[in-house]
Amino acid sequence: MRILHTSDWHLGRSFHRVGLLDAQAAFLDHLVATVRTREVDAVLVAGDVYDRAVPPLAAVELFDSALHRLAAAGVPTVMISGNHDSARRLGVGAGLIERAGIHLRTDPAAAGTPVLLTDVHGEVAFYGLPYLEPALVREEFGVRKARHQAVLAAAMDRVRADLATRPAGTRSVVLAHAFVAGGEPSDSERDITVGGVAAVPAGVFDGVDYAALGHLHGSQRITERVRYSGSPLAYSFSEADHRKTMWLIDLGAGGEITAAERIDCPVPRPLARLRGRLDELLADPALSRHEDAWVEAVLTDPVRPPEPMARLAARFPHALSLRFEPEQTEDSAAAASYAQRLRDRDDRQIAEDFVAHTRGAGPDAGERAVLGAAFDHVRLDLTRREANG
């Protein structure tokens, strides 16, 4: 069976205030064309169809058009909700849409109920695990602690239990939206940390033939059978070196992966991250290749130059982001900026640092637990508000 694995469309998202709807439409054109020309048997969309819980109308219309075109192609599509989606909204009408071959899996309770598709070698069971917010699904899965690993492991137990009832030789595919250990994140993914832990081990997917993952925006292979497709478009400058692709997976008669090919996605405009003094960036002939790119410039001038963005845009008309990191001098070497001190530190660590700064000693284990619970509560409250519009 030939599977096209994609995820993280983020329909409705912009890039530094530049609308991407046309680029997203071009990607969906490419996806439908690939389905037809490469004789795909099933399309998988592993979450984050939309960029937010209440997407703009234009994004909904684009999604609606994509569903109609995939249904018209006669190729089954299985998709799950991600942490950016409102599972309830995305799942509206799922029963009716399923009659057209579009299988929306947004209910955690249905984790052990597969979509069954058939090829010449028999059945393939596709299990859709939507994004599992631990605090919201812990009772459904009967886990003691609201942790990503616990709820995902419980969902996979249901998958394996159902698979055990299937005829011998039934092949299996799981769609999941999670941060799996070993994956390389970028700046454009929303943090899903709970209790200080975001990643789950790849071994949680043992027992299935292929795990089609969503959430991380870089296409990557965690193991031979566990892969991220990545987002079809770049959504931050941290993705400047990404090759945006979909996975074309051939699943053999015994569940083996006989072929795995990366299908390139259309690039609306390349990204470039430039660093140096402004005059150097404006004069360096080697940078001519970036003049049509979306540009992020990091200026290292010791003194901020006048009108830097206007001058930069004169050479790089698509410059979108400007940051300043002055070269260190003897006077500034000992005083890093506040932003530099906070870089790569999460909210919990920043709060703990603040406690240490204000009273001269960091929080003890009990206080760290209270801080962690407070941050988890706030994040969960935001998730609920987004889900409810």
Automatic annotation (TrEMBL):
This is Nuclease SbcCD subunit D. The keyword Magnesium does not apply. Keywords: DNA recombination, DNA replication, Endonuclease, Exonuclease, Hydrolase, Nuclease. InterPro entries: Calcineurin-like_PHP, DNA_Repair-Maintenance_Comp, Metallo-depent_PP-like, Mre11_N, SbcD, SbcD_C. GO terms for molecular function: exonuclease activity. Heterodimer of SbcC and SbcD. Pfam families: Metallophos, SbcD_C. Residues 1-217 form the Calcineurin-like phosphoesterase domain. Residues 268-357 form the Nuclease SbcCD subunit D C-terminal domain. SbcCD cleaves DNA hairpin structures. These structures can inhibit DNA replication and are intermediates in certain DNA recombination reactions. The complex acts as a 3'->5' double strand exonuclease that can open hairpins. It also has a 5' single-strand endonuclease activity. Belongs to the SbcD family. It comes from Streptomyces lichenis.
